[in-house]
Write a structure and sequence with these properties.
It contains 3 helices and 4 strands; from the N terminus they run E-H-E-H-H-E-E. By secondary structure, the protein is an alpha/beta fold. Helix 2 crosses helix 3. The N terminus is likely disordered.
Length: 85
């Protein structure tokens, strides 16, 4: 690794019904700097982390999570396409 670079910690958790909570999501996102998720997982995470908030679109959801948890990279998979923020 080059000088000033550090290894990333990634989060690629597959959410299963009734096996995740706000506490688990927050804890895992505070210890990583890279997150990969699909559009459905993005909706679930936002609903769990910010209940009652009306998110306009995936860009707003992704930006909010990136900012809140100081993530360096978020990769959002959408079927045949992938976006990195």
């Amino acid at each position: 690794m080059g000088q000033g670079m550090s290894r990333g910690r990634a989060n690629d958790v597959n959410l299963r019904k009734n096996f995740h909570s706000r506490s688990i999501l927050e804890t895992s996102l505070h210890i990583v700097n890279v997150m990969k998720l699909n559009d459905q997982e993005l909706h679930v995470r936002c609903r769990v982390l910010e209940p009652g908030h009306d998110w306009n679109n995936d860009d707003n959801r992704t930006t909010a999570i990136t900012d809140r948890f100081s993530l360096d990279v978020v990769t959002l998979t959408r079927g045949s396409g992938t976006l990195s923020y």
